[in-house]
UniProtKB/TrEMBL annotation:
Gene3D superfamilies: Cation efflux protein transmembrane domain, Cation efflux protein, cytoplasmic domain. Pfam families: Cation_efflux, ZT_dimer. It comes from the Bacteria. It comes from Paracoccus aestuariivivens. Belongs to the cation diffusion facilitator (CDF) transporter (TC 2.A.4) family. GO terms for molecular function: cadmium ion transmembrane transporter activity; ferrous iron transmembrane transporter activity; zinc efflux antiporter activity. It is a multi-pass membrane protein. The chain crosses the membrane at residues 7-29, 41-59, 75-93, 113-131, 152-171. The lineage of its organism: Bacteria, Pseudomonadati, Pseudomonadota, Alphaproteobacteria, Rhodobacterales. This is Protein p34. Keywords: Cell membrane, Membrane, Transmembrane, Transmembrane helix, Transport.
Length: 295
């Protein structure tokens, strides 16, 4: 089992634990704002399950029907997560409207708030795990889950403050008002998750700093060639695809050109272990005098 799968399984257990605590918090207080917090945790559990399925599909090797692999499955998971977040936000808005129409004094606020704070601390710790490990493992599914949890942690903090103010001031209407603000925050979080994932489905190029690293690696290790041009990149989960044209002297033999390509590919894979590289060798008269000049 890969590290990514282990973290995804951990997300399910953490999500169930946090959901149980937040549901208990709502049950003790009757707070609409705390109910909205618990409803978002339902989404957390569902998306954690979807992320695990997507990670397992993405790990499958290439086959006849999918010769480039299944890496984009993680992006579909992240898009699904964004959609589910938006649905949760709309449900919370509905509860907030009911709360505005029938405001009520909260029951056992201290116990409920303390339980909610404990759940938020667990979420904050797991959010850090997901984002840090997701970046290291280059997993869109883990990153999407982590950024969603970060939004959950921030909104939970606002809910605790708001419910506390509602209890102290006696303004019951503050409770549904906080629930509505949580819903708006969740909507924004869902939109960001979806747009970030859609860019991957649209074959977005690698980040500029990674592109500079690729250019530098080609320039440093393509000794014997003249230039590299038409460099293109895209990423799909942990996988990076790189292709470019490599111009060599017209007198270069096939074996010599092959050795140069091997040297460049090995260097690129040291920099980007999960990469697929395609190099098209061209004779000198095809040079464009642009792109990557070989040192």
């Amino acid at each position: 089992m890969s590290a990514t799968e282990r973290i995804a399984i951990g997300s399910i257990f953490v999500g169930i634990l946090v959901l149980s605590l937040k549901t208990l918090s709502w049950w003790l207080t009757g707070s609409v704002a705390l109910l909205s917090d618990a409803m978002e945790s339902i989404v957390n559990v569902a998306t954690a399950v979807a992320a695990l399925i997507a990670i397992r599909v993405a790990a499958r090797p290439a086959d006849r029907e999918h010769p480039y692999g299944h890496h984009k499955a993680e992006f579909f998971s992240a898009v699904l997560e964004g959609a589910m977040i938006i649905v949760a936000a709309l449900l919370i808005l509905r509860e907030a409207v009911h709360g505005f129409m029938n405001p009520r004094v909260l029951d056992a606020p201290l116990e409920g708030l303390l339980i909610n704070i404990g759940a938020s601390v667990i979420n904050a710790w797991w959010c850090w795990v997901l984002i840090s490990r997701g970046r290291k493992l280059r997993s869109p599914a883990l990153l999407a889950d982590g950024h969603h949890l970060l939004s959950d942690v921030l909104s939970s903090g606002g809910v605790v403050i708001g419910v506390t103010l509602a209890v102290i001031s006696g303004w019951a209407v503050l409770d549904p008002a906080l629930a509505a603000l949580v819903a708006v925050n969740i909507l924004w979080s869902g939109w960001k998750v979806m747009t970030r994932s859609l860019s991957g489905l649209m074959d977005e190029a690698v980040a500029e700093d990674t592109l500079d690293k690729i250019r530098g690696t080609i320039s440093d290790h393509a000794t014997g060639a003249i230039e590299a041009h038409d460099l293109r990149t895209r990423h799909a989960g942990p996988k990076t695809f790189i292709d470019f044209h490599l111009v060599v002297d017209g007198q270069t033999t096939v074996e010599q050109a092959h050795d140069i390509c091997d040297r460049v590919e090995q260097a690129l894979r040291r920099e980007l272990p999960e990469s697929t590289i395609t190099i098209h060798v061209e004779p000198e008269h095809k040079a464009k005098h642009s792109g990557v000049l070989v040192i």
